[in-house]
TrEMBL record:
<dbReference type="InterPro" id="IPR042176">
    <property type="entry name" value="Pantoate_ligase_C"/>
</dbReference>
<dbReference type="GO" id="GO:0004592">
    <property type="term" value="F:pantoate-beta-alanine ligase activity"/>
</dbReference>
<comment type="pathway">
    <text>Cofactor biosynthesis; (R)-pantothenate biosynthesis; (R)-pantothenate from (R)-pantoate and beta-alanine: step 1/1.</text>
</comment>
<dbReference type="GO" id="GO:0015940">
    <property type="term" value="P:pantothenate biosynthetic process"/>
</dbReference>
<dbReference type="InterPro" id="IPR003721">
    <property type="entry name" value="Pantoate_ligase"/>
</dbReference>
<feature type="region of interest" description="Disordered">
    <location>
        <begin position="46"/>
        <end position="66"/>
    </location>
</feature>
<comment type="similarity">
    <text>Belongs to the pantothenate synthetase family.</text>
</comment>
<dbReference type="Pfam" id="PF02569">
    <property type="entry name" value="Pantoate_ligase"/>
</dbReference>
<keyword id="KW-0067">ATP-binding</keyword>
<keyword id="KW-0547">Nucleotide-binding</keyword>
<dbReference type="GO" id="GO:0005524">
    <property type="term" value="F:ATP binding"/>
</dbReference>
<feature type="region of interest" description="Disordered">
    <location>
        <begin position="1"/>
        <end position="28"/>
    </location>
</feature>
<dbReference type="InterPro" id="IPR014729">
    <property type="entry name" value="Rossmann-like_a/b/a_fold"/>
</dbReference>
<keyword id="KW-0566">Pantothenate biosynthesis</keyword>
<keyword id="KW-0436">Ligase</keyword>
<protein>
    <recommendedName>
        <fullName>Pantoate--beta-alanine ligase</fullName>
        <ecNumber>6.3.2.1</ecNumber>
    </recommendedName>
</protein>
Length: 411
């Protein structure tokens, strides 16, 4: 079979997504519609260099920096929030684990454009790491994160007001073990959406995410919050949390999910964990996942769903099959090339899932019977494990890369 050929527009489009004001909260024209070019550049350098690049970054002519206030306790945050409420300020919130990159900064920019005040949390949440995962080595870069946030401003010169950087004991006052079976106290889970896709390999991950986000939402009480499409399952789950548990702050419709920010040349989704990759792996092989998703998207678009009322005669099942085949084939090809170059790429999964139930569509197509199966929207997502093969044959650290594309719908 022939290798799938990706149209140029799919591999060379400008990946830097710039958040444009939705004009809901503010009518003022945007002075800056995208992030400074310097933020794009950091992904082409090593982690250490990138941090200092960011801290030195300016917004271009006339830029100035203003350091946000750093708050470490829930008590101080609540005092600040009470005052904002009394002054009728609309508060936007961006939760992060720090080691900020242009993807995070795009979310913060959206909050600045659409709210009076902006809070960014930086907290590496132990509850979402399994005991064997990278909690201890996860990059912690508060000084350069603070410097990067100091550079941002809205068209009306609104700045990041607060960096909320609590300790683990502040967020887990009764203590915490990462071993779920041994945990005591209040934890939050969203059932039915947390065991597939990322949850298949990280079974306790979303329990940790949902628990910490519940705490953060209670502490910040934001009017609006901003998340990235890169972690698509997290967004679907958190929206469900907000609606099922009747959260007043933020209300579910005020949780915004913004497109994935990518390396402008390779298309690699920006991620704090990309700092673990060698330049060779980051530039040549890690983008394989995105290239696979693009090939899948092309295959999806080539199989049209029958119009409403017309018989399906198996197009739905064929669409699923061809889409996944195209994507998986790209990974297989790229893994073979990488292997020859001393890099191991191992596919954890590529799947198609229903955008709201997250049901696995490949399995559904098989169980429903292919002639009756219809599908017009899906999340195609995947996880790829990348590692270097050392000269002594040992593998270096394994980095988990995730990515997704939305087929037939938007968030
Ligand atoms: N490339 C990106 N584009 C848009 N949003 C992003 C991107 N990367 C992360 N985000 C979003 O930023 C928020 C904080 O994410 P987080 O601090 O875990 O960063 P990360 O880069 O995803 O880190 P990790 O390497 O641990 O996955 C989340 O809402 C996440 O979806
Ligand atoms: C939402 C979040 C900050 C919770 O720790 C984390 O999962 C992330 O950064 O995506
Ligand atoms: N953005 C996801 C954070 C994590 O993998 O823990």
């Amino acid at each position: 079979m022939q290798e799938p050929v990706l149209p140029r527009r799919l591999i060379s489009q400008p990946f830097q997504s710039s958040y444009k004001s939705q004009g809901k909260a503010r009518d003022a024209p945007l002075k800056r519609q995208c992030l400074p070019v310097v933020y794009q550049r950091q992904y082409r350098t090593q982690a250490g260099e990138s941090k200092s690049d960011v801290s030195k970054a300016g917004n271009g002519a006339g830029s100035s920096s203003l350091t946000p206030r750093i708050i470490h306790t829930v008590k101080d945050l609540r005092a600040w929030r009470r005052e904002a409420l009394m002054n009728g300020k609309k508060v936007g919130f961006v939760p992060t684990m720090g080691a900020l990159h242009a993807g995070h900064l795009n979310l913060v920019q959206a909050s600045l454009e659409n709210n009076d005040c902006t809070v960014v949390s930086i907290f590496v949440n132990p509850a979402q790491f399994a005991p064997h995962e990278d909690l201890s080595s996860y990059p912690r870069t508060l000084p350069s994160d603070t410097a990067a946030l100091s550079q941002l401003s809205s068209g009306e010169d609104r700045r990041v007001d607060i960096i909320f950087a609590p300790s683990v004991s502040e967020m887990y006052p009764s203590g915490l073990t990462q071993v779920v079976q041994d945990q005591v106290g209040a934890f939050v889970e969203v059932k039915g959406l947390s065991h597939q896709m990322e949850g298949g390999s990280r079974p306790t991950f979303f329990r940790g995410v949902v628990t910490v986000c519940t705490k953060l939402f209670h502490a910040v009480q934001p009017d609006a919050t901003y998340f990235g499409q890169k972690d698509i399952q997290q967004s679907v789950i958190l929206r469900r949390l907000l609606s099922d548990l009747l959260f007043p702050f933020p209300e579910p419709q005020n949780m915004h999910v913004l497109p994935t920010t990518r390396d402008p040349i390779t298309g690699l989704a920006l991620s704090s964990r990309n700092a673990y990759l060698s330049p060779k792996t980051r530039e040549k092989y890690a983008p394989a996942l995105y290239r696979a998703l693009m090939a899948g998207q092309l295959a999806w678009e080539q199989v049209q769903e029958p119009e409403e009322g017309k018989s399906s005669s198996g197009e739905g099942a064929m669409r699923i099959r061809r889409t996944l085949q195209a994507a998986r084939k790209v990974i297989a090809g790229e893994a073979a090339l990488a292997q020859k170059d001393g890099v191991r790429l191992q596919l954890d999964y590529i799947s198609l899932n229903d955008p709201s139930t997250l049901a696995n569509l490949e399995q559904q197509a098989a169980s429903v019977g292919s002639s009756d199966f219809k599908v017009d929207k899906a999340i195609m997502s995947g996880a790829l494990l990348a590692s270097e093969i050392e000269p002594d044959g040992k593998k270096s650290r394994v980095t988990r890369l995730i990515d997704n594309v939305l087929l037939g719908f938007s968030m």
